[in-house]
Amino acid sequence: MAELVLVITHALDPMDHESSNPVMEAVADVCIRASKTRDTSIKVRRSLYLYMAGSKQMLGSRGFDKDEWDKQWTAGEKFFALMIKRIGLEKFGTAGYRGAQFTAQLLDVEAAIDRVGVRCASHLRLRRVPPIKNVTVIVPSSFTEDKSICSSIEDASKILMNCWQGYDILKEAEITFMVAKVC
Predict the structure, then answer these.
(1) Would you say 130 and 2 are in contact if contact means Cβ atoms under 8 Å apart?
(2) Which range scores top for mean pLDDT: 91-95, 112-116, 179-183?
(3) What pLDDT is attached to residue 56?
């Protein structure tokens, strides 16, 4: 069984720990809870895919787009690393960990929710993941305030479902939104 945790960070300042900490805590809680729940009827190892979507301004340019001397981490990369550390780095390896297998990916996309959905689905299809049963989308409370991203959580859910209809791995996924209260 596979699960997806999609974190949309477009309206978040990752360097402001007071505002980004609730999002990080929500992600960690979902991931840790998912790693502890077991379905004994299924003998297949569970997989959890953690995708963090943000704008280029937050995530910065990819490594091969940078000059060789420019090795500074962007704010989004630092936030992503802190999130991985909070969940537990040992959960992201295949050797020695008996729980769910975790995979994490940074996605640099524009703010539109449909672009996030398509990019996420195409990454999952390239990885040839098993069908996703549950999708948890974690957004900061400022997500619905920015109408250029999406007008409401219900609209975002419908848009994601429409985006994922063409992808067998996400077609029957149950989508749950979590809003992290940001100061």
Answers:
(1) yes
(2) 112-116
(3) 56
Among 97, 75, 72, residue whose Cα is nearest residue 87: 97
**Can you name the residues that pair with 176 across neighbouring β-strands?**
136
Helix axes 17-36, 75-87, angle to 10 degrees: 40
Give 56-60's long-range contacts (Cβ < 8 A, gap of 24+): 56/108, 58/9, 58/10, 58/12, 58/14, 59/106, 59/108
CA distances from 138 to 82, 93, 106, 114, 181 (A): 16, 23, 14, 15, 11
Q: Comparing 15 with 165, which gets the higher pLDDT?
A: 165
Residue 100 CA neighbour count, 13 Å, CB half: 26
Q: What was the pLDDT predicted at 182?
A: 72
Q: What is the pTM for the complete model shown?
A: 0.77
Bridge partners (DSSP) of residue 140 are 180
Q: How far apart are CA 167 and CA 64, in angstroms?
A: 29
CB-based contacts of 132, cutoff 8 Å, min separation 6: 2, 3, 4, 49, 124, 169, 170, 173
- CA–CA dist 52, 65 (Å, integer): 20
The pLDDT tens digits for 44-76 are 557 888 888 876 555 555 555 555 555 677 777
